Each structure stands twice: as C-alpha cells, then as structure tokens.
TrEMBL record, chain A:
It is found in: Nucleus. Transmembrane segments: none annotated. The gene is IPI1. GO terms for cellular component: nucleus; rixosome complex. This is Pre-rRNA-processing protein. Belongs to the IPI1/TEX10 family. Keywords: Nucleus, Ribosome biogenesis, rRNA processing. Component of the RIX1 complex required for processing of ITS2 sequences from 35S pre-rRNA. The lineage of its organism: Eukaryota, Fungi, Dikarya, Ascomycota, Pezizomycotina. Residues 1-37 are annotated as: Disordered.
Automatic annotation (TrEMBL), chain B:
One of its GO terms (cellular component) is nucleolus. GO terms for biological process: protein transport; ribosomal large subunit biogenesis; ribosomal large subunit export from nucleus. The keyword Transport applies. Residues 686-731 form the SDA1 C-terminal domain. It comes from Orbilia ellipsospora. This is Protein SDA1. PANTHER family: HSDA/SDA1-RELATED, PROTEIN SDA1 HOMOLOG. Residues 65-437 form the SDA1 N-terminal domain.
Length: 361, 732
C-alpha cells in the first residue's frame, strides 16, 4: 500500500508542468539528447592548398615578425634568411624598405642568445661592406646613417646590460657603427656624452666620483673590465671611438680642392656660414621632439652639444679625462697586450687634447 | 672585508639578486648599480623614441629595481623621481597598462621610502587623475592619493600637507566653476568626501571646497557637492561604527567560544547575533562622548550667502540642464540650510508653491523641503499661501487617503515650526478630518490638534481643545511673530529645592554658614574647566536693543506689563547660562514661581555635578515620562524624515489569491523548515528507517497489536513500561 502511493506520486510527477522562471535556463526535457562530443583529434576533410609560393616580400615580412620569436634558433634562422635574400638582390632595388628593416634589427643588439647576436653582427657587416670597390654596399651608408641614433640607443642599452655576455658583445656593434658611418656615430649628445658615460660604467672607471674611497680601483666587482678577452676588445673599440670623435682626418687637400676652396671661400670662416653638410645639426635643441623630455643642456655637462670636434674635446676635457686617464694607467701597469693598447690610447688622448689646447691658445 | 671579497666573485646575473646584495652593502655595489642606472636611462630613451608599441617588460623590471634601491644612492638617482613623473604626465594616455601601473606604484613606493615628499607625489598624480581616459588608472590613482593622505595623517594631523592639498583641490574646483563641461572638480569632490568620511579632514577649509563645488556650473560636480552636504555626516557615523570593531573582540571571543561548545541551532545563532549587536552598541555609546565632530553644515562660512547663491544659480532661473533629481537635491540642501541657520531666502517659498500638487513627481520630497525651509523667523505671509495650497490640493473630499495624509502631515510639520502660518478657519476645517475612516488621515488630523493644543488652543474649536489646554489657556499669551520663548532647564526647580534642603540640613547640623563656593569647587572636581565662581555683580547683561524697539513700536494695544516681562525673558538665554539679567529692574511679582527657579540658572554656573544631580532627581520624580509627551518641541535644526510626511503605510485591499502570492513570494529561496536529521537523510541514499516503516505500516496490520494492548495485565504493562524507561536511560 505504501509503495503504491509512492508509485502514484511518481506517475503524477511525469505530468507535472515544469515551472518556468525568468532569468533561469529552461529545464531540459526528459527526452533531450545531448549532441556534444569529445574527440582527441579533428580531421578537416578538405584543406585549401595554395599552389603559388609566397613572394619574396611576404617571406621577408614573415621573417621580420619571426625576429621576435621566443626560440632563439628561429630568430637566428630568420636573420640568416634575411641576409641571404638581401645579399642576392640588387642594391638599387631592395625587396624591403630599409626604414622597416633597420629599426627591426636594432633591438636584437640586446638579444639574450649569443648566436643571434653574432648572426646579427655578420649580417650587418656583410651587408654594409661593399663586395668590391666598384660596387656599392647592399645597404647604403645613408640608410644606416639615418638610423644611427636608434642603433646607438640599443648599443647604450647593451653596454649597460646586466648580462656580461651582452655587454661583451656590445662594443662590436659600436665598432661596426664607427666603421660604417664614422663621425655620425659620435655626433650629438646621444652619440658622444651618453656613449662615454656608458664606456665609463662598462670599464668600471666611474669610481672617480664615488668619493669616500670605499672602493679602490684594483678591486673589481662582478664584471666590469674583468674578462681579459672582452676588455681587450673594449679597449680596441674605445681607441677607435676616441680617435673618430676627437681627431680630425687631416688628409692633405688636393690641388683642385685648394683651388676650388679659394674660389668659393672669400672669407676665412665661410664654412661656418654655409649650409651645414650633416643632417639635423640642431638635434641637441630637440626642437622637434614629440613630447620627449627636454633636458637642460649645460655646456659643461657631459651631455652638452657635441656637434664638432672642439666641443667633443671640451666635454672629454671637462668631464671624463681624469677618469679615463686613471683607468688607462692601471691598465698600463697590467702590461701585456692590454698594457700596450692602453699606452696607444693614452697617446691618442694626448694628441687630441694637445690639439685642443693649442687651438684654444 | 672578507665578505666583500667573497661577494666580489659572484657574477650578477639578475636584478633581484643584485637588489638583495645592494640592500645589504650599498657602497660595494655602487658600480653595479651605476651600470643598471645607465641601462635604465638607455631603456628610457628607447622608450621615448617610440612610446607606442614598446615591449615594456624589461623596462618595468628595471624600474622596480631602481625604485627599490633608490634610497641607497640618493645622489645618483636625484633625477629619477622627476623622470617617472614626466613619463607619467606626458604619456599616460599612450602607455601600456602594465607600465603605467608600475610607474604609479614606483612613485608611491618612492614616497613610502621618503625619497619624495607627499606634495610632489600628489602634484604628479592629481593632474593625471583628472585627465586620463582609463578607468583602471583612475581607480589606482584615486586609491593611492587617498591612502597617501591617510598615511600622512595617521599619527598626527599633517596640517601642512592638508593645507596644500586642500589648496590644490580648491583651485581645481574653482578653475572649472564657470564652465559647464569641466568635470575635473568631480574628483576633487570625491577625494574630499572620502577623506571627510574617514575623519581625516574635518575643518572649515574642506567644507569650503565642497561649497565651491556646489556652486559649479557643471551638473555632476554640483550634485556631488550637494550630496556631500546632505549625506556625508551620516556616512561618517557609519564609518565610525564599523571602524571600532576590533575593540570588543575579547568579549566576543567568549561568546564565540560558547557557541562553539553548545549545540548549534538557529535560535542560538540569532541569540548570538543579537548579543553581538548589543555589545557593539554599548561600546559605541562608550566612545560617543569623546569624539567632537562638527557637521559639515555647521562649519559653513556665510550660510546665508551660500543658500542665496544656490537658490539663484540652480533653482531661480529655469536651469534646463539640471534634471529633476538634481534640482530636488539642491532644494533639499537649501531648505536644510534655511532651517538649520534660520536664514531668509524669500524666493524659495514661491518656487515651492509651483510644485505642490498631488500629481507632481516626488511630491513628498517637495513637501519635506517646504517643512524644512520653515522656522520661526519666516514671516507667516510667506507660508500662508503654501499652507493654503497644500490644504486645497491635498486635503479635500475627492483625494485618496494617502494624499490627504501627506498633506495634513506636511501642514503639521510646517505649523510646528511656525504656528502663525495657520489661521483659525482653516485649522478648524482641517481638524474635522479627525473622524476620517482612513487611519493615516485620522492620525495626521489628531496630531495637528495635539500641536495646536500646546501652541495656540484658542484657535481650535472648543470641543477639540481638551481639558488641560482649556485650563492653560488663561495663562497663555497670544503668539506673536519673532518672539523667542524663554529657555528653561528642565528639572531646575528640583535642584533649587534640593539646595534648600541641603541648607536646612547644614543649619540643623552645625549652624555654620554653608559656603556655596566651596560646593561649587567640589562640583567641578575632575573637570578641566577653570571654575570661576560666579559674581553676579560683575556681569553685565547684554540685551539686543533692536528687538525691544520693534516690539515697543508695534505692540501698543497690548498690556505694557506683559511686554516688559517678555523683553526680560528674552535676555535670559539658556545656552548662555552666564548671562545674568540686569538687577536694577525689579521682577514682576505676578509669576514668582516661574522666575524663581530661573533665578538659580542666572545666579550660578551649573557644575557638571549639578547637572548629574538634576538628571538623577528627574529620574526619581519620574518626570521623564511626562516630558516625553513634549515631542512637538521645535526641531528646525534636524532634517525632516520623508516617512513622517507619508504617514503609516497601509496595505491596500487584496483578495486571498494576491495575499497568498505575496506569502509564497516571501518563501521563495527560503530553506524548508524541517529537522536537521531529515535533511541529512534526504541527501544521502539510504534504506527506509524503522520510523518510516512504522509510519507507513498498514493500518489493518497494527489493529491486532492495538487490541492486545488493551488486554494486557497490569504486570505485563509494568514490565513494558519499565523496559521502556531502562531503554531511554541507556540512550537509544
């Protein structure tokens, strides 16, 4: 009897109307069949296969995006691919604009993987060096010159990077820049003062300012200048840097030049009144800076205008000379290859600054 | 030195470890830090050369590193905070969210390390707060600003900082005051409100900021300011309540412990809740006396000017930009100000008149405003049209009970504040509603009668006056405009009596001259206030001459003696007990009792002991009950509650189905009442219990046993009962 009433209730239940409520999902019907399924793999029956291979441009673009890939081997391979494509294409009609390519390459100076950095350096050197004297380089010097400030930014960043390997490689890139664009790499506050500051910390020569004499220059912490091989490389590049920055090329003028000069120059200082030869010479005023930080430029400061040799010499004289000389002297005492290099560097300093002093007198 | 050499051998490979080492020994790691600082600079330059689309992870890491160790090398990082501020100020709209968040964090961190002062931080954050488009950044900035000011004021009030910040906020509000599009002030209001709520700012300067905001042309800023005045004090109280929660954790712990041990039932739970609530209230009351807070409305400078400006700016000219709600808020504030400070804003009464019809949306709030805007200095001529209109529109035969209730209640509220606004015939008309079938209307009409019984019984119909009011009528004077009732201290007569008794006792005991001053000193014991024994001769009564002059001029038809009494009573003010009325005028002998006990108030300063005494004696005399009747005492300072106007809510007639539906609605979502065991059983799968079986057992099968039960012998019965008791004792 008890169970029969239970059964009755159950039967009744079947005919009960489901109560619908606002805001609640509708209850599923009893005969509802679920059509969802789980599968380990989905096989797509038809796939569109493009028969035409992608063009060179699209390939290059794709490779440029791969420069940000997380796997270093991919980055290295795409660099190699870019290098091979560019070297086989004519310089007059590049498959990709340099104003896209070069800014994309610059950040790789800071790449964490050594192979990528080496690959980048080989790419840059091979593409900017003319194969033979009659031909132009594949990437023209002007293109590199235009992007020099950007490269410099990344070189600075690399010179001060926390990883010693990146710091070690950083000067290679600076050396490359000096080779290619020459004086343009050391022009302006960014090129000269900033780079010199980076040099100071890179070589561990900043200690002159530290004051209370807690550190002597003989103890070198963590890394600065410790690695023999790296410091050799650093000193070589520093020599190059200083001579490009402070020593004018005194190539003897040809007869023709002198004649033309006499014609064109009615006045001793004509040069300074002519249109400037270099681009953007008032960069230090940051007239066209888009909301950038306007730094107070002080003549005595390290980051003053360094557009010409005189001002560069003055900056070195005012700010860095003491530190550089002190650092070089300690290196000189070490002797060997490094000592010899340091001696050469000291000579460069003497020559440059003597010229300056002569000028001023 | 040894340690230094060892650390020198380690190579720095990541920033966190370098940070750790720098923190331990800053001078040794100076070079490493310098490298990192230059790296930061170069990263910043890279960022500045292309602010958009910059991969900022490395930069963020660098930023946090330098921030953490910035205090170790102050001379190197001199420009760092300014750099951060510039980055944020210039690029806050284009920066990546992570980087932006980090910048704000770094600045706050620098502030916490005391590298930069609070003002510098706020000067950076506030402009960004007001200009940024990102909601996320805004909340972050807002929180950091508020928490910075809070921290600065944590131990003692940092008045210097507060002053500067308030100055900045004031300028922000004032700058955008005249343009309807400037929403900058909104943030100023928000910050101010938050700090007020937390009791960090509680001075007149703060109120000045909000005052300026309430007069701004922008509707949002304005309503923010107005809302502040209307609601912030209540918020502050609530904040206080919630804040002192920690104090009674101890006694709560005991309760909780008990609850953990005893059986858990719903009843116990509710008991516990109630106990907690009680404890909280007790604790709150303990603290209440110590906190001295002035309400924002009281701190206003020049309330009259403020109310005038508010009215003329937002209400008088038809300001189409304001919504109804905003206008109502302004109206509420203006009326509140008028009531609180007894101001005169003549325009508002005619303005209100326009909106007092039953069909007006939110009419109860207009009625509330009308009541709030009334005080005893408002000329009755201004109020009469309002009362007339309310009576005509709300209280007539055709309207529903609710409307009539609202009308009558609002008339009562107005008349309680200014009884002269009513005339005899209207009052007598309105009192006829006391026989209404609607409960609300009837109660409202009765309360109106009750009011006039106290104030002016002669205006009522004879049968409405009641016995006591009729008896008092003879001694009562007619109401006159501008008259200030003489204040009394309740229970003062009792104190006087007590003093007499004490004197008697002393005389009986020793016959010495009881020195009253000594008594005074004892009364002040334990109170910081300097006890200045009173000397009535040295005080000069200050009486307002103007009032006297006016009264003399317009009350020629009245008895001169009454007038004299009047003016003298004016001089005596309860709030300033030290005021002593001039002794050269002899007191009228007509009412010696009334004046005699005031004598005590005017001849001596009541000590706290005296006041405590009064309270005790009043409790003893059970006078408190009697005074509870006197609820109609003017309260023009307080806001009128809307529920007072609306009257008691009655549920309309409804049929059974509707009622049942309402009941069922209440039950929705409520768990079913049943035993805990039953619920547990219902959830888990189980076979039928014996009880269930017994319950479902076929009736016929149980019949036999039932029959047998009746035929059992006494012995058998006894054995069964005994076995049952035994079983119960064993427990199941």
């Amino acid at each position: 009897m008890g169970s029969s009433s239970k059964k009755k209730k159950e039967k009744q239940k079947d005919f009960a109307k489901p109560k619908l409520k606002v805001g609640k999902t509708k209850p599923k019907a009893d005969n509802h069949t679920s059509t969802s399924f789980r599968s380990k793999a989905i096989v797509v029956g038809h796939q569109s296969l493009n028969t035409a291979a992608p063009t060179l441009q699209t390939q290059l673009k794709h490779n440029l995006t791969l420069l940000n890939h997380h796997a270093y081997s991919t980055r290295r391979d795409s660099l190699a691919h870019i290098a091979s494509v560019l070297s086989s294409s004519p310089a007059s009609n590049p498959p990709i604009s340099y104003s896209i390519l070069l800014p994309a390459l610059a950040p790789l100076t800071l790449d964490s993987a050594a192979p990528v950095r080496t690959q980048l350096l080989t790419l840059l050197t091979s593409l900017t060096k003319p194969k033979d004297l009659r031909q132009d380089a594949i990437i023209p010097v002007d293109a590199v010159r235009m992007h020099t400030p950007r490269f410099l930014l990344y070189v600075h960043s690399a010179m001060t990077h926390i990883s010693a390997d990146i710091r070690g490689d950083s000067t290679n890139f600076l050396s490359w820049l000096l080779d290619v664009v020459g004086e343009d790499a050391v022009r302006g506050a960014k090129g000269w003062g900033k780079t010199l500051k980076c040099w100071m910390v890179l070589l561990g020569w900043e200690s002159g300012k530290s004051g209370p004499g807690i550190r002597t220059s003989s103890i070198e912490f963590s890394d600065p200048g410790k690695n023999k091989k790296a410091s050799l490389q650093h000193l070589i590049v520093l020599k190059k840097f200083l001579s490009v920055g402070m020593l004018e090329n005194e190539t003897p003028l040809s007869h023709y030049d002198i004649r033309m000069a006499d014609l064109l120059r009615p006045h001793q200082y004509t040069e300074s009144h002519l249109m400037p030869k270099t681009s953007n010479i008032y960069a230090h005023l940051s007239l066209f800076a888009t909301g950038g930080v306007m730094e107070n430029v002080n003549e005595e400061d390290a980051e003053g205008s360094a557009e010409d040799f005189d001002s560069r010499r003055r900056i070195v004289n005012n700010v860095f000379e003491g530190n550089i000389r002190a650092g070089l002297h300690t290196r000189l005492q070490e002797g060997g290859e490094i000592g010899r290099l340091a001696g050469g560097l000291l000579k460069v300093m003497d020559k440059a600054l003597k010229a300056d002093r002569l000028d001023t007198h | 030195m040894v340690k230094r050499k060892r650390t020198a051998l380690e190579k720095q490979t990541n920033l966190p470890s370098l940070q750790n080492q720098i923190r331990r020994d800053p001078p040794s790691y100076r070079d490493d830090f310098l490298i990192q600082y230059r790296h930061y600079e170069s990263q910043r330059d890279i960022f500045l050369s292309q602010p958009e689309g910059y991969d900022s992870d490395a930069f963020i890491e660098q930023l946090s590193f330098i921030t953490h160790v910035a205090d170790c090398y102050p001379e190197v990082t001199k420009k760092f905070p300014q750099d951060l501020a510039d980055l944020l100020l210039r690029h806050h709209n284009t920066l990546e969210t992570d980087l932006r968040e980090k910048l704000v964090q770094c600045l706050v961190q620098l502030r916490n390390k005391d590298v930069i002062p609070s003002t510098a931080l706020l000067q950076t954050l506030f402009p960004v707060l007001t200009t940024t488009h990102s909601k996320q950044l805004r909340t972050q900035l807002y929180q950091s600003i508020v928490s910075d000011i809070r921290n600065a004021n944590a131990k003692t009030k940092n008045h210097k900082l507060n002053k500067t910040v308030q100055g900045v906020l004031f300028n922000v509000v004032e700058a955008g005051k005249d343009s309807p599009d400037a929403v900058v002030g909104l943030w100023a209001v928000k910050v101010t409100r938050e700090l007020w709520r937390r009791n960090i700012w509680d001075d007149a300067r703060t109120v000045e900021i909000i005052k300026e905001a309430s007069l701004s042309a922008n509707a949002k800023v304005m309503s923010g300011g107005v809302r502040f005045f209307l609601g912030v004090d209540k918020e502050r109280e609530e904040m206080d309540e919630s804040s002192d929660e920690e104090d009674y954790n101890e006694s709560l712990g005991k309760l909780r412990h008990q609850a953990g041990i005893n059986k858990k039932t719903k009843k116990k739970q509710t008991q516990m809740d109630r106990a907690i609530e009680k404890l909280k209230r007790k604790e709150r009351n303990k603290h209440k006396t110590t906190v001295l807070n002035f309400s924002a409305l009281h701190l206003l400078h020049d309330p009259q000017g403020f109310a005038d400006n508010l009215y003329s700016m937002h209400l008088a000219k038809s300001n189409a930009k304001l919504s109804m709600e905003q206008k109502l808020l302004v109206l509420q504030l203006v009326s509140r100000l008028i009531g609180l400070h007894k101001l005169t804003v003549i325009g508002i009464y005619s303005y209100l008149l326009k909106y007092l019809t039953p069909r007006q949306r939110e009419v109860t709030r207009f009625l509330v405003a009308a009541a709030q805007a009334t005080h005893d200095q408002v000329p009755p001529d201004l109020l009469e049209p309002i009362i007339r209109k309310i009576a005509d529109e709300f209280v007539s035969e055709g309207v529903s009970g609710e409307v009539a209730t609202a009308g009558l209640n609002s008339i009562r509220e107005i008349c309680a504040r200014q009884p002269l606004a009513m005339n005899d015939s209207l009052l007598q008309d309105l009192t006829t509603y006391k026989g209404s079938k609607d409960k609300g209307v009837m109660m409202a009409a009765r309360s109106l009668i009750g009011l006039y019984r106290e104030v002016a019984p002669e205006m009522l119909k004879r049968k409405d006056r009641g016995k006591t009011a009729t008896m008092d009528m003879k001694s009562k004077e007619k109401l006159r405009f501008g008259e200030e009732a003489p204040g009394t201290i309740e229970g003062l007569d009792l104190l006087e009596k007590w003093y007499e008794e004490q004197k008697q006792k002393k005389i009986e005991e020793g016959g010495e001259n009881a020195d009253e001053e000594e008594d005074d000193d004892q009364g002040w014991e334990g109170w910081d206030v300097e006890s200045d024994s009173d000397d009535s001769g040295s005080w000069v009564g200050v009486s307002s001459d103007d009032e006297k002059d006016i009264e003399i001029s317009d009350s020629e038809d009245e008895k001169p003696s009454a007038k004299n009494k009047k003016s003298k009573a004016d001089d005596v003010d309860t709030s300033e007990k030290m005021d002593v009325d001039d002794d050269d005028k002899p007191k009228e002998s007509a009412q010696p009792e009334q004046d005699s006990f005031m004598n005590l108030a005017t001849t001596r300063i009541l000590t706290p002991a005296d006041l405590a005494n009064i309270a005790k004696m009043r409790a003893a005399a059970d006078l408190q009950k009697a005074s509870a009747k006197n609820t109609i005492a003017l309260k023009n300072e307080e806001a009128v509650d809307q529920s007072i106007i609306e009257g008691p809510k009655t549920r309309g007639k409804s049929d059974k189905e509707a009622r049942l539906a309402a009941v069922m609605e209440g039950r929705e979502g409520r768990e079913k009442y049943s035993s805990k065991r039953g619920k547990v059983l219902a959830e888990k799968p189980h076979s039928t219990t014996n009880k269930e079986k017994a319950r479902k057992k076929n009736f016929l099968m149980t019949l036999g046993q039932a029959k047998r039960k009746q035929k059992r012998s006494l012995m058998e019965h006894r054995r069964i009962l005994k076995a049952h008791v035994e079983k119960q004792k064993k427990g199941k």
